[in-house]
Amino acid sequence: MGPRLRGRSTLRTILTPMHTLIRFAFLAMCFGIVSSSLAATPPGVSYDSVAIRLLESGLRNCEAFQMLKELTSHAPHRLSGSPDAARAVDLTKKMMEQRGLNKVHLEAIMVPHWVRGPVEEATITRSTSKKGTKLTICALGGSVATPKRGIEAEVIEVKSFEQLRTLGESAKNKIIFFNRPFDPTKFNTFETYGGAVDQRSRGAVEAARAGGVAALVRSMTHVIDDVPHTGAMGYVDTVKKVPAAAISTLDADMLSKLLLQEKNIRVRIQLTCKTLPDTPSANVVGEITGSEKPDEVIVVGGHLDCWDKGQGAHDDGGGCMQAIEVIQLMRKLGVKPKRTIRAVMFMNEENGNRGGKAYATAPERAGEKHIAAIESDRGAFAPRGISVQADSSVLAKVQAWRSLFERMYADRIFPGYSGVDVSAIVERGAAGFGLDVETQRYFDYHHSDNDTIDKVNPRELELGAIVEALLCYLISEEGL
Ligand SMILES: [Zn+2]
Q: Which pLDDT score is estimated for 22?
């Protein structure tokens, strides 16, 4: 923390609320003059005034939302390798150019190309009370297809891999139904997700190991509704690849009840998904070049790809648009950061993280020093703080800026994970930061048809961009 900031912090403690109010009103009044004449934070311009101006300028127009509307309407299903992902690359490059970012360019990568296919169905084929009932399912990302006529087998329910292993012969030739729900007692929804998602990511492998013929996985959400949630799953070379699908929570509960009431329930599953050869794609990159240390870089980004369900509005169109907005806000205010602030739209976070890895190792990185990498990928909800993935001295430095984020209620600064896309940059020595947000509703939408633009509040989205802009600015001025 710089001496200037330390001085101000002491001063703040003796300012009365009335002083703050007067100062706020004065700054608001002369906002136009200050914003157009300010260059590279001349002496006397406090960080606090920059924070106020970022806040006012951002909330006046909420432009991140206008951009997100454009992205989600023109390229809603941006799964890696898809036509919409290619459209999103072109569109965001244009957005950056139109908004005057420097050095806008694409960095080419090859990405996996999985397609869902037109048919994904599940029907109860043996039951005295529910025969013929359709179950709402969707293929998990990366799944193999079923044979053309589907897989028809008895269903067996388990809550854990341990339980599955105890079943022995009785799991053979069954559809393994993984039905461990989200733990509702935890406050942290990401922790809850972490406690259930092994069923989705490894369910097919564990099902096949037990002799099962398919995996049916309860959707990763707190909500009980009829919308299945997709997401990445994987195979291992040594185990047979069996198809895997998510089932809506409503149908998971119904099926579970039915299994208690009746014996030998059978279900037919049909999936027509497939994996095509890898496809060319790109990360989209643009920046505001540093005025004093252009080779020291602060990355701010999100992932441009999303699942083919919904519109990827929260996950992670919002994070991408916020990154562009960070630079747009600075340009509008005439802020000239000392170090380079670079917006990166990473491609392929959902099923490979090829974009994140390629960015960190690209030849373009030679001669650059990445000091920080900031990711917003927890939904476009109201910001609550910043998680810091760095050593304790960096954490202490950023925590000393806490009061500057109080105005946005985003002053929770704590050690924690940054994000998948920036993880390779962080591994190479940059400090990692994650925009922490209010996440109680995130998994209502995540990876499903529910993740659409109407679920995003323009002001909450913008506040996230403002917090990121302020963090970028402070790091740019002070270093780490
Ligand atoms: Zn995401």
A: 43
Q: Dig out the tokens for 99 from the structure.
A: 């908004």
How far, in Å, from the CA of 226 to the mean position of ligand 1? 22
Query: What confidence category does residue 404 fall into, taking pLDDT thresholds of 50, 70 and 90?
Result: very high
349 flagged as catalytic: yes
Share of the chain above pLDDT 90, in %: 91
Catalytic residue among 107, 287, 325, 349: 349
At residue 144, the pLDDT reads 98
- The answer to whether 371 touches 297, Cβ cutoff 8 Å, is yes
What is the C-alpha to C-alpha distance for residues 38 and 50, in angstroms, rounded to an integer? Answer: 10
Residues for the chain: how many in total? 480
For the 117-272 domain, the top CATH level (class) is alpha beta
Query: For 421-448, what is the mean pLDDT?
Result: 98
**CA 392 to ligand 1 centroid distance, Å:** 27
Cα angle 202, 143, 445; round to 5: 80
Q: pLDDT by residue (tens digit) across 7-51? A: 333 333 333 344 444 444 444 443 333 333 334 444 556 999 999
Provide the token pair at 358. 């390629």
Mean pLDDT, the chain, as a whole number?
Answer: 92
Q: 87 alpha carbon to ligand 1 midpoint, in Å? A: 19
Nearest to 82 by CA among 259, 309, 295, 249: 309
CA distance 281 to 270: 30
Structure tokens at 382: 């109201």
pLDDT of 275-314, one tens digit each?
999 999 999 999 999 999 999 999 999 999 999 999 999 9
The CATH architecture assigned to 3-111+278-478 reads 3-Layer(aba) Sandwich (3.40)
- In the chain, CATH 3.50.30.30 covers 117-272
CA of 340 to the centre of ligand 1 (A): 25
How confident is the model at residue 1, as a pLDDT? 36
Where are the strands (E) in 381-460, listed by range? 383-389, 412-415, 431-437
In the chain, where does the domain assigned CATH 3.40.630.10 lie?
3-111+278-478
Query: How many whole angstroms from 449 Cα to the centroid of ligand 1?
Result: 15
379 CA from centroid of ligand 1 (Å): 8
Q: What is the pLDDT of residues 195-218, one digit of tens each?
A: 999 999 999 999 999 999 999 999
Per the structure block, which two tokens stand in for 465?
């961009």
349 CA to centre of ligand 1 in angstroms: 7
- CA 317 / ligand 1 centre spacing (Å): 9
Distance CA 388, CA 406 (A): 17
Average pLDDT (87-107) is 98
User: Which residues, at least 6 apart from 50, have a Cβ–Cβ distance to it below 8 Å?
Assistant: 41, 333, 335, 470, 473
